[in-house]
Inverse folding.
């Protein structure tokens, strides 16, 4: 069986800078920050009191008011963004075979708020106080599970949980299933909502978060010498990916073609990348090999770019190792985490949406807050202002705790 071509035909996003794809993309291109003081809990006493929260999200657009308590916030984000992506893809009843359509979603942590609330209820009132919806609201695969139920998709349905690489792995695995003929269409991406006491407190105890609490919008500053940690974000990014011929047959608009996917493990440390960045180098090279593409064809990389002291120079060095002289003659790199923070398991999903839009619209998003690049950060990071440039192909990188790495490559569709 020949390998099939895979294209992106629908996008959905709920982010700290917009509750839909259009407003999110406009904010990203304008260099708008979604970071502010935390409102979902009283942050006093936490080392970091800032986050990139989704603002004014109304779950009643997706489920009836009486049913909201059945779902955790990360699931509601997923259902809302998937509905938007499905509508964007313009799929009608006769356009697909439900048994060859599925959902793979990246979720790093899952229903942390549901777990916290129910644990408090258990301690104060005993087991009778637990919600009957505790387990189905909390477990990570209920994000794709609820999307499958909502859209009637009867094919593949599971969660990828690989920390901050989850969303990118989900896109890559969906690509393989469609390419190899096992599915015709997959709703994929990532969703996360971990701005809770345990989420903020846990990452805070690791000293992973920025403590620039008095200047929230300037706290996420990838590649800048004054960066001091990442800013946690929440939200969801969804892509409808399908086999090219069926997309053409129904006259679908096509954002981009998915051509490359690479993955690796550092096999080194639970939280730190390996010095020299071999794992990142390996997965970027693999993505180029799978795409059958020369490195000079890639004009833009949406970097993992977390704004942590260790990650940014390690990734920059790995990009230099892979792309060589191309880094000095046309390769542009940016971190959209400078605006929306780090969405953990959803990061790769939202960044996949940005990658598709960058190729379709000929605009490369900026890295805001990059006032003085750190030593070891020597690439063209598109500082402060978006660029109107049409590139032929673009890559997105994600690296996660446990040393897990993934890269995907999208190409302009002609």
């Amino acid at each position: 069986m020949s390998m099939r071509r895979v294209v992106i035909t629908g996008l959905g996003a709920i982010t700290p800078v917009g509750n839909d794809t259009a407003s999110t993309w406009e904010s990203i291109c304008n260099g708008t920050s979604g970071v502010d003081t935390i409102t979902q809990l009283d942050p006093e006493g936490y080392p970091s009191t800032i986050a990139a929260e989704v603002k004014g999200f109304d779950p009643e657009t997706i489920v009836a008011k009486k049913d909201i308590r059945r779902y955790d916030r990360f699931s509601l984000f997923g259902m809302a963004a998937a509905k938007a992506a499905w509508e964007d893809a313009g799929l009608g009843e006769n356009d697909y075979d439900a048994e060859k359509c599925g959902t793979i979603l990246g979720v790093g942590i899952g229903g942390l708020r549901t777990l916290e609330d129910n644990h408090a209820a258990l301690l104060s009132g005993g087991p009778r106080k637990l919600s009957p919806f505790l387990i189905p609201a909390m477990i990570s695969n209920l994000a794709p599970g609820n999307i499958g139920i909502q859209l009637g998709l009867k094919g593949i349905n599971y969660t990828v949980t690989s920390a901050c690489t989850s969303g990118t792995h989900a896109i890559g695995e969906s690509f393989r299933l469609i390419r190899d003929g096992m599915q015709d269409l997959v709703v994929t991406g990532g969703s996360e909502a971990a701005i809770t006491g345990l989420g903020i407190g846990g990452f805070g105890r690791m000293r992973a978060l920025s403590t620039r609490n008095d200047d929230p919008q300037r706290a996420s500053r990838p590649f800048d010498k004054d960066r001091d940690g990442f800013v946690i974000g929440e939200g969801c990014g969804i892509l409808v990916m399908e086999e090219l011929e069926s997309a053409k047959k129904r006259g679908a608009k096509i954002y981009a073609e998915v051509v490359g996917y690479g993955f690796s493990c550092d096999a080194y440390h639970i939280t730190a990348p390996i010095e020299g960045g071999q794992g990142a180098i390996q997965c970027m090279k693999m993505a180029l090999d799978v795409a059958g593409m020369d490195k000079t064809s890639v004009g833009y990389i949406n970097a993992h770019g977390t704004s942590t002291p260790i990650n940014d120079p390690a990734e920059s060095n790995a990009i230099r190792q892979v792309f060589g002289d191309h880094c000095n003659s046309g390769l542009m790199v940016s971190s959209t985490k400078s605006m929306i923070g780090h969405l953990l398991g959803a990061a790769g999903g939202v960044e996949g949406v940005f990658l598709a839009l960058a190729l379709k619209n000929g605009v490369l998003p900026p890295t805001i807050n990059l006032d003085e690049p750190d030593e070891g950060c020597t690439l063209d990071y598109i500082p402060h202002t978006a660029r109107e440039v049409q590139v032929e192909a673009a890559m997105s990188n994600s690296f996660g705790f446990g040393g897990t790495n993934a890269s995907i490559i999208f190409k302009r569709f002609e």
